[in-house]
Methyltransferase type 11 domain-containing protein (marine sediment metagenome), 108 residues
Amino acid sequence: MPNSENSAAGHDYGNLQKYLNPNPLQRWLLTRFHRRVVEIARQAGASRILDAGCGQGFVIHQMEQDDLAGSIMGADLDTAALAWGRAHEVTQQPLTGANIRRLPFPDN
């Protein structure tokens, strides 16, 4: 049975459960992952970042917290996950519903 705090539109979200899990080892692994993503983005000198498959926007949130310069946007097919991220103010960056196989952005 879905937990109302960990679900939206009656669906359980593994990604949401992963990020809200209080397990210290899991928290450490997520922190390590976030730091690596930010490090790679900085090394690449990216001025625009698209988090394709962003879910609720937790990785984008970490990029904001680490003051990663540039334009950041999230896209995910799961509009309920995007809505949860917006409702809980996970990120202030734009989140759009899109299929990563057919993104509504020009190639660059």
Notes: Helices lie at 14-20, 24-44, 58-65, 79-87. DSSP finds four helices and five strands in the chain. Strands lie at 7-8, 11-12, 48-52, 71-76, 95-97. Confidence is low (pLDDT under 50) at residues 1-11.
